[in-house]
Design a protein that fits this description.
59% of the residues lie in helices and 11% in strands. The protein is of the alpha/beta class and 259 residues long. Among the domains are: 132 residues, Response regulator (Rossmann fold), CATH 3.40.50; 48 residues, no CATH class. The strands form 2 sheets. The protein has a 5-stranded parallel sheet with strand order 2-1-3-4-5, sandwiched between helices. Strands 6-7 form a two-stranded antiparallel ribbon. A hairpin with a 5-residue loop joins strand 6 and strand 7.
């Protein structure tokens, strides 16, 4: 079955011979449905779904073609609607255009070739209109998805920003802790350096032992290591114990100072 024969067309007329002629004329190219009045036509729409084209006679009992097409427009807005009638009353034409929202007004008896062309054009118009509606629906859906994605992205950005803020706060705390540890380590190393600078000194003669296990006089060692230079003097105790006896030994008995 080709795409053309899959195109559904509904023809409505209260004269059976016209229904038969319509089916015989166009069944080779379209899927044809027929109804004898407006009520049957609406039932066919409910049962078989939207038609590409609805062609209806205007003068019918119970429901006019214009009224039928008005209802068709309400339930199937993309369906192409055509009036086919033997009457050319201007009031009918105006009513068909205003109420039935028709796409074409055709006068009976129809010319088969001309009506076939009208049906083809109507079917193509329906296809394009339906395709356009599908694209609009798809576009609305994509826009909604984009809007939702944008909102979701904004939420995720806010959450991520909050996480980064917390992480930055934690990092600052860690940096402060690390800095404190560095200060403590530096103090420890300085203390260790001070310990490492402890110098062995003889408890008796006060000589200093260097790293090569040699013993040196205190002033010689410190001068050698560049620590400091000394200026020599004599403390009172040493003067009394060391210097005074030496001086007394040099002086005669008469020159010695009384104790």
């Amino acid at each position: 079955m080709t795409q053309a024969t899959e195109t559904k067309i509904l023809y409505v007329d209260d004269e059976k011979i016209n229904l038969d002629n319509f089916r015989l004329s166009f069944a080779d190219e379209f899927t044809i449905f027929t109804a004898a009045d407006g009520a049957d036509a609406l039932d066919i729409l409910k049962k078989h779904g939207e038609m590409a084209v609805v062609v209806t006679d205007q003068r019918m009992p119970l429901m006019t073609g214009v009224e039928l097409l008005r209802q068709v427009a309400g339930v199937s807005p993309h369906t192409v609607r055509m009036i086919l009638t033997a009457y050319t009353d201007p009031e009918d034409i105006i009513a068909a255009i205003n109420l039935g929202q028709i796409n074409r007004y055709i006068i009976k008896p129809w010319n088969t070739a001309e009506l076939r062309l009208c049906l083809k054009n109507g079917a193509e118009l329906y296809r394009l209109s339906s395709k356009n509606e599908e694209l609009l629906t798809s576009l609305k859906k994509k826009n909604q998805e984009l809007f939702e994605s944008k909102n979701l992205l904004e939420i995720k950005v806010r959450e991520r920003t909050a996480q980064l803020k917390d992480a930055n706060t934690d990092l600052k705390a860690l940096n402060r802790e690390l800095l404190q540890k560095i200060v403590e380590l530096r103090d420890t190393r300085e203390q260790m350096g001070m310990v490492s600078k402890l110098i062995p000194i003889c408890s008796y003669c006060k000589k200093i032992r260097d790293d090569h296990d040699y013993w040196h006089e205190l002033e010689i060692y410190m001068a050698k290591e560049g620590m400091m230079d000394f200026s020599h003097g004599v403390c009172p105790d040493c003067y009394r114990v060391k210097v005074q006896p030496a001086l007394d030994a040099i002086k005669g008995p008469d020159e010695q100072e009384p104790e």
